[in-house]
Design brief:
Blueprint (H helix, E strand, L loop, with lengths): L4 E4 L5 H12 L3 E6 L3 H14 L4 E5 L7 H13 L4 E4 L21 H32 L2 E5 L3 H4 L5 H21 L4 E7 L8 H12 L14 H9 L9 H14 L7 E4 L8
Parallel strand pairs: 1-2, 1-4, 2-3, 4-5, 5-6, 6-7
Helix pairs in contact: 1-9, 4-6
């Protein structure tokens, strides 16, 4: 009997990595997508194969390139023969202040337009297109789609307008696709809160380099909160602690594998952070 097959975008690090582990622990086959994080992806693959032989395969792809999404679906079908669940996890995140300085001539710039375009392309249009391409195969298996959103899609986040706009669009699309694809395919979302602080400086430099090669200018800063800001965030979270990637992974696997009467839902996994913002 064929195992359940899951396609996860952006699976090499952080939440995607934890999610891949969670599905393999549940006996699933996983197609691991990555873009620039080659070493992390290969390391993850070895970890998963040590748990279960033939549990996963890797595919490298820039999802913004023509035909990349079709190739991703084809690779999954060729490797495992079916597609049961799609996890749209790949995303970009960095500050995009509305005003670089408070002068009238800087209210609208080509740079901010390019930034918004890139956020919408990666965080909204890629999940949309991939969901549509996957739909015929998910229909055959009565499968599901889970989109990674963000609690700030509802509340806004200072200096991250483009990111919030794209995630808000993704949230709205999640609810609409649940209606369009019903009753064959379930579509849900997960909105993380304070789960992980940004990566180390080395990883940040890698991300900056990758972003500088895309359509938008390289961000001037994608550093995370300082120590005081971290304390403030946790003090303004009901559970008073930082969440773990495994908390998100458990929710994603629940929606895909267990919640067979749930669709059009967005689950906040934030320790109560949203009550304070």
């Amino acid at each position: 009997m064929k195992r359940t097959t899951v396609l996860i975008t952006g699976s090499a690090k952080r939440l995607g990595r934890a999610t891949a582990h969670a599905f393999v622990q549940r006996g699933c086959h996983v197609m691991l997508h990555y873009n620039h994080s080659t070493q992390a992806a290969k390391s993850l693959q070895q970890e998963l194969l040590s748990i279960s032989p033939r549990a996963c395969q890797l595919i490298q792809s820039d999802l913004n390139q023509p035909d990349a999404l079709t190739k991703l679906i084809d690779a999954t079908l060729n490797a495992f023969g079916q597609l049961d669940h799609l996890i749209n996890n790949a995303s970009i995140f960095y500050p995009t202040p509305l005003f670089k300085n408070h002068t009238e001539e800087n209210i609208e710039t080509k740079e901010t337009e390019l930034e918004l375009s890139q956020f919408l392309l990666t965080n909204y249009f890629v999940p949309k297109k991939l969901s549509l391409l996957a739909a015929p195969y998910l229909t055959k298996t009565n499968g599901s789609i889970t989109n990674l959103i963000d609690i700030y899609a509802d509340t806004g986040l200072k200096d991250h307008t483009a990111y919030v706009a794209a995630k808000s669009a993704l949230k709205a699309m999640t609810v609409e696709l649940a209606q369009i694809f019903a009753p064959q395919i379930r579509v849900n979302g997960v909105s993380p809160g304070a789960i992980l602080w940004p990566d180390s400086e080395g990883s940040l430099n890698e991300e900056k380099e990758a972003l500088s090669k895309s359509l938008q200018p390289s961000p001037t800063s994608i550093a995370g909160p300082n120590e005081k800001q971290k304390v403030d965030i946790l003090n303004n979270t009901s559970l008073k602690r930082l969440g773990k990637p495994e908390n998100i992974a458990a929710t994603i696997t629940y929606l895909a594998l267990d919640a067979n009467y749930t669709t059009g839902s967005i689950i906040n996994v934030d320790g109560g952070r949203r009550d304070y913002i």
